[in-house]
Amino acid sequence: ELSVALYRHLLGLQQSTDSLAQPAAGKDLHLLCCDIDPELIERAQQCSPFPTSMSFAKLDIMDRGARERLLGSYLARFGRSSFDIVFCMSVTMWIHLNHGDRGLLEFLSLLASLCRYLLIEPQPWKCYRAAARRLRRLGRNDFDHFRSLEINGDMAERITQILSRDCAMELVCCFGSTSWDRSLLLFK
């Protein structure tokens, strides 16, 4: 739903229609939408009102082979080596919890190398604590890396520092916070 709403917004399409016979219909816009959850991807593929312009694919972005195959073949279809923009919504915490500080750094470096612009929505540290608490309440062990994370605290600020310092990206705009208290940060 977020990807379809984003597509409509970028083309200036009205929410009530799935038709491309509107003012911005001549623009060439293609979205590749990835998620690790195959059920979400299947549902998105079945419900997409723009199947020729929006591709949905299951991808564990931290699986180097899978990501190189998928992203490489997708970009090659358009004669491109990178994306104009990447949207990373509510993903950083899960990468960080499951792959540690090293995984987060690798992920942010990868994103920076894949695009000209990056819009990222980092989850605040309180979300990390809440996720760990939910896991413990279910009687399961903590995330493997939770207690050893040295990158912590103000995650929007930490991610901004990493992208600026280590990935040579520039913060263009902070669009404020979502209703879930998550910053929306645009980098170039």
UniProtKB/TrEMBL annotation:
Record's keyword terms, sorted: Cytoplasm, Methyltransferase, S-adenosyl-L-methionine, Transferase
Catalytic activity reported: a 5'-end 5'-phospho-ribonucleoside-RNA + S-adenosyl-L-methionine = a 5'-end (5'-methylphospho)-ribonucleoside-RNA + S-adenosyl-L-homocysteine; a 5'-end 5'-phospho-ribonucleoside-RNA + 2 S-adenosyl-L-methionine = a 5'-end (5'-bismethylphospho)-ribonucleoside-RNA + 2 S-adenosyl-L-homocysteine
Gene3D superfamilies hit by this protein: Vaccinia Virus protein VP39
Subcellular locations according to the entry: Cytoplasm
Any single Gene Ontology cellular-component annotation: cytoplasm
Pfam families on file: Bin3
Chief localisation class: cytoplasm
Molecular functions (GO terms): O-methyltransferase activity; RNA methyltransferase activity
Keyword Methyltransferase: yes
E.C. designation(s): 2.1.1.-
GO biological processes: methylation; negative regulation of pre-miRNA processing
Domain Bin3-type SAM, residue spans: 1-188
Superkingdom, natural source: Eukaryota
Function: O-methyltransferase that specifically monomethylates 5'-monophosphate of cytoplasmic histidyl tRNA (tRNA(His)), acting as a capping enzyme by protecting tRNA(His) from cleavage by DICER1. Also able, with less efficiently, to methylate the 5' monophosphate of a subset of pre-miRNAs, acting as a negative regulator of miRNA processing. The 5' monophosphate of pre-miRNAs is recognized by DICER1 and is required for pre-miRNAs processing: methylation at this position reduces the processing of pre-miRNAs by DICER1.
Family statement drawn from the similarity comment of this UniProt entry: Belongs to the methyltransferase superfamily.
Full protein name: RNA methyltransferase
